[in-house]
Amino acid sequence: MGSLRAPAWAVGSVTQITSDVEPAGRSSRLAGVRSRRRALDELDEEHLLRLVARGDRAAFDELYRRTSPWLAVRLRRRCADEQIVAEVMQETYLAVWRAAGAFAGSAIGGTGVGWVWTIAARRLVDAFRRRAHHAEPPAAAAERAVVPAAEDEALAATVGGEVGDALRQLAPELRLVLQAMVLDGLSVRETAVLLRLPEGTVKTRARRARIAMREALA
């Protein structure tokens, strides 16, 4: 696949609105669109998802614009195959559009960004499993330092206070496992597929991470 793009109806929704207006009303309509964009820009991701749940395509456009660069970086840190990343991105945002009501109506706490990532992580696990039936697993993205790391940005937005500080101080291999299982809500098996680790290793690292967290918070 080529570069990552939102669905055509998402990307083109605002421009389509303006292109269909008669010239006499173009100025006022453009002003209205700009005002709407500014209003959406001031909302957090949770409010945007609630609007998406009501079928608000402009809110979806804004959510995609705001989250897709970060999401693509995070996926690429786990998969070097651009085709898989593009497929997962497309499937993720299609699921977000269709299932935003599940977040909007949920009584469980959590961030909109975290909810979107959980969908993407599970889609990536599914993609790995599909590929495993036909060929060798896709190459893992090369380990590299990213400052600030996508995971650390998500961590900062999701977990605060002493818990967040303790989590960020974990060894990277322990933090990734705990993050996938606790913050992303993945099972041991899903975490093993996502991180390309044996299930036994995931269990061991999760146990070590929890012990380290308890000691740090004691």
Could you characterize what this model shows?
Helices cover 73% and strands 0% of the residues. The N and C termini lie far apart (49 Å). It is built from twelve helices and no strands. The protein has helices spanning 8-11, 13-19, 23-41, 45-53, 57-76, 82-104, 112-132, 150-158, 161-168, 172-183, 188-195, 199-217. The chain has two domains: 36-135, RNA polymerase sigma factor, region 2, helix turn helix motif (Rna Polymerase Sigma Factor, Chain: A, Orthogonal Bundle); 160-217, Winged helix-like DNA-binding domain superfamily/Winged helix DNA-binding domain (Arc Repressor Mutant, subunit A, Orthogonal Bundle), CATH 1.10.10.10. It has 218 residues and is mainly alpha-helical.
Give a quick precis of the structure.
This protein has helices at residues 8-11, 13-19, 23-41, 45-53, 57-76, 82-104, 112-132, 150-158, 161-168, 172-183, 188-195, 199-217.
Short key terms for the protein model shown above:
218 residues; Rna Polymerase Sigma Factor, Chain: A; Arc Repressor Mutant, subunit A; 12 helices; globular; RNA_pol_sigma70_r4_t2; sigma factor; DNA binding; RNA polymerase sigma-70 factor (ECF subfamily); transcription regulation
